[in-house]
Amino acid sequence: MKTISCMNIEPETLYSYGGEKKTYKQKEIIYREGDHATYYYQILQGKVKLNSYNEEGKEFIQNIIGGNQSFGDSLLFLEKFYVMNAICLVESEIIRLPKNNFLELLENNPKISLEMNACLSQRLYFKAIMLQNMSSPNPVLRLEGLLNYLKSYHDGDCEQCFPVELTRQQIANLTGLRVETVIRNLKKMEKLGKLKIQDRKILY
DNA sequence: TCATTAATCGAAG
DNA sequence: CTTCGATTAATGA
Question: Ranges for the HTH crp-type domain (predicted)?
Fold first, then answer.
């Protein structure tokens, strides 16, 4: 399984185009739903959550991303507004580059531009798979879909040693299930030998 | 030690 | 499946 390194531009390159490093505190909001997309963001360290809320006020997490990954970039080629919020789960170091500078960077660096295409394609691909799994009425399938998705970001090739660093609540918000349902089905999957649980840590 | 947050469980709808 | 209520474990001030 190939690791998704979506995207990882050399920090030096970003700086030379006017990128600036910024440290966000835990729970700090990077941008909100409805804001204009004006920056390209790349995480150096930390964890960022992309979420939105449904009409009942329940949180739905679109994704949780970590080091060396970018976000907010899919809208840089359009004149649209964000459809989700970006919030730091922990203190994070993030480089942000103004939209126009980013586009200029791509123009001058065909190689990076190509990577960008590959990156966006890969996201579309996994989004499609996620969508299928998440629309399943079977909770085990939803969980499996999410776990496969998360694992695709992971490097190792070993069986059942990929640690899922999410709380049960986050998994619930990611799959649209309730915490209890997540817990119960995770146990069911453990019995089926699909994953292991050690000290509450999920190994997939 | 007190308070808060996360994980679990059992029972009912 | 979800909701409710209650217990227990883990973490931090």
Answer: 137-204
